[in-house]
């Protein structure tokens, strides 16, 4: 069955982290609504490829190199978008991710003299990097681009990307889990703060998705499943991993004022039931 897209012709959408697997999919989906889409990422080549794909399919896209943790870089990107497209009225904050420097080796503390990285071995710099990329990498773009929405005219919407582990923290990744929980909380706070300005603020909370980036988490080099994959599937009532297209419907619903005009401050899990399952 073909998808039905709302008509956002005349709208300008800004997507951060648009060079990544999920956010490139988000960008292509938004482009299908006839909105102009500005794709921001620190990796220009990645977003240029996505922008070219959107243009080849008849959409309107602009690739912009931008460091979401640098206010000056955000200002420069914003000025570029204003000159090329006009003011932003849709902001999707997708920049984020985890880092090995903020990850423990085991799920539980092991005191046996091994070379495992425990919670007590994690360095301040690694934790700050992960928390900063996810939380500050959401807050700073809002400060820059939501200024365009303060007129209260049109469909002004902010979508943040939280995670299923904001509901149920995952083992091994304390900084990433904490940062995503902060994004969920920030989404609710911002929804209240901007409500009188006609700006809706919501978040997607994806679960485990099968992408090129996550493949090492699920599969060994020989193609067999990892123990972590087996745990995930056993705790997912729908018994499968998600694919990027599974996010499209919820994204379009939250963007469309005709469908979700009275919805703000919600964090929607899209995880096959993982966050609902207690394990017994």
TrEMBL record:
Gene3D superfamilies in the record: NAD(P)-binding Rossmann-like Domain
Assigned protein family: Belongs to the short-chain dehydrogenases/reductases (SDR) family.
Keywords: Oxidoreductase
Name under which the protein is recorded: SDR family oxidoreductase
Entries under InterPro entries matching the protein: NAD(P)-bd_dom_sf (IPR036291), Sc_DH/Rdtase_CS (IPR020904), SDR_fam (IPR002347)
Protein's organism: Treponema parvum
GO molecular function terms attached to this record: oxidoreductase activity, acting on the CH-OH group of donors, NAD or NADP as acceptor
